[in-house]
Write a structure and sequence with these properties.
By secondary structure, this protein is of the alpha+beta class. The protein has one helix and four strands.
């Protein structure tokens, strides 16, 4: 329900204001009855005529009330569902754009760090790539060296039991 009070006013007027005007009365006398006016355009006198001109003032005061009830609540529910779906779609688009931005930042910062290009720590842009780390990719072995020492031949290997000390074992239901 919607209730709205209102107050309106209006004024109409004409300038110059004339309540009367002089209307000329012409001489239409035909003394010789020849069908022609004897003195055409001759004004005999002026007759005052009212103009009925007035100034108008108007003031209106009132209240307007509107009440509306949806006749089809199913359409209203569909409208709310559509609005919710649209909001969810917009939020997902924002999340997608944020992910695209972060992935592009990660890729560009990583490539620059690999190339040895970094912002100075006192630069206001240092924090842009500060959280990007370079790690060894999986499946790639970094170059390294091992030292191999040969077995010493002076060690003698001795048995600590015989075949009778072995047990029988089974794996699964075999």
């Amino acid at each position: 329900m919607n209730v709205t009070p209102y107050l309106t006013g209006g004024v109409t007027f004409k300038k110059p204001f004339e309540s009367y005007y002089d209307d000329p009365v012409y001489d239409v006398h035909d003394a010789d009855d020849d069908g022609q006016i004897d003195n055409p355009g001759n004004i005999l006198y002026y007759m005052p005529t009212r103009t009925n001109q007035t100034d108008n003032y108007n003031l209106s005061l009132g209240i307007s009330a509107t009440w509306s009830k949806p006749l089809d609540k199913e359409l209203q529910a569909q409208c709310k569902e559509a609005a919710a779906a649209n909001i969810a779609l917009m939020n997902q688009n924002v999340a997608n754009k944020r992910l695209d931005f972060e992935l592009a930042r990660l890729k560009n910062c990583g490539e620059l760090k690999k190339a040895g290009i970094l912002f100075h720590p006192k630069s206001p842009y240092y924090s842009v790539c500060a959280d990007v780390m370079l790690v060894q990719p999986s499946g790639v072995v970094t170059p390294h060296m091992h030292t191999i020492t040969p077995n010493s031949p002076n060690k003698k290997v001795e048995a600590n039991g015989n075949s009778n000390s072995l047990k029988t074992i089974s794996i699964g239901n075999l």
